[in-house]
Amino acid sequence: MTTGVNRVVIAGTGFVGSSYAYALVNQGITEELVLVDVNQEKAEGEVMDLNHGRFFYESPSKVWNGHYHDCKEADIVCITAGVSQTDEETRLSAVEKNTEIVKSIVDDVMAHGFNGIFLVSTNPVDIITQATWKFSGLPKERVIGSGTLLDTARYLHMLGEYFTVDPKSISGYIVGEHGDSQVAALSNVAIGGKNVMDIVNTSDKYKLKDLEDIAVNVRNAADIVIEKKGSTYYGIGAGLARITKAILKNENTVLPVSALLDGEYGFHDIYTGVPAIINRQGVKEIIELDLNKEEQDKLTSSIEVLRSTMKPLLKL
Ligand code: NAD
After folding, report:
1. Ligand 1 site, residue 122, Cβ cutoff 6 A
2. Ligand 1 in contact with 98 (CB < 6 A)?
């Protein structure tokens, strides 16, 4: 795996891959960054553009347009390749096309001796992460999806606006599918350690209905951005960089990612969005939130959506 120099390979240099690359170099998170895409010209153009900003970055990263043989010495291979959701499609409808694309990438990466961590954001991300785990044969800890990281960031942002509090002072998670069946774990949201339900129950200003509306707005956020500008990429690019930093710097940070459940929340053998401790080994531990009955039932439905979609595809 590692040579002592941090190396990230990005497979797919479209909107998401290039936004992630920009976040990585801008924040000086990785020492070496390799861009790979079937569209060679696109990858070359992105490398040139990124290198032209090198003078201004936090610390210089070496960036080049490479090949899958560069994965042998990579710490992380991030899969951002794939077709995007259009405004008529759900994320799940892109599943077949993206499974094929990801299989070809994972086979190629593994054939070149990769032994690091796969990070996946291609949609539908929970299913594509499960496929990556299955195709790669790597331990579950070393195959991670971006899961509900972006949804959680949107949730904390909107809650922060509502309560006029820095989102970093709020803890809370969206769990389950990165998609329409996602679950806002409202019973666990806290501001400065104070449970949000206690705040709502003792306030004339803040209402439970508003918080329920925020969860709906989080779920619809991607569709609105796609309607307005075609696709979403800055948020997920920054989020992937955050996971990458937690891995490379061995942070033991809790982030909501798509991880393989092995009895947690009462489910087995399914990737879905849950908070987890992330470090140099990948997923160190999944955190089991104490969900209320309604949230647990919604999570069960979300898992059912994922299972029924991936069953024919992955022959589980
Ligand atoms: P895009 O069309 O801009 O980029 C996709 C890139 O993948 C293209 O450059 C294409 O040439 C490349 N590609 C296709 N097949 C390939 C292969 N076999 N090997 C290497 N590269 C290949 O799309 P985008 O907007 O960057 O979105 C990419 C994926 O990310 C989509 O599946 C999208 O739904 C997903 N996405 C996920 C999140 C999330 O939160 N997980 C957020 C936004 C987008």
Report:
1. yes
2. yes
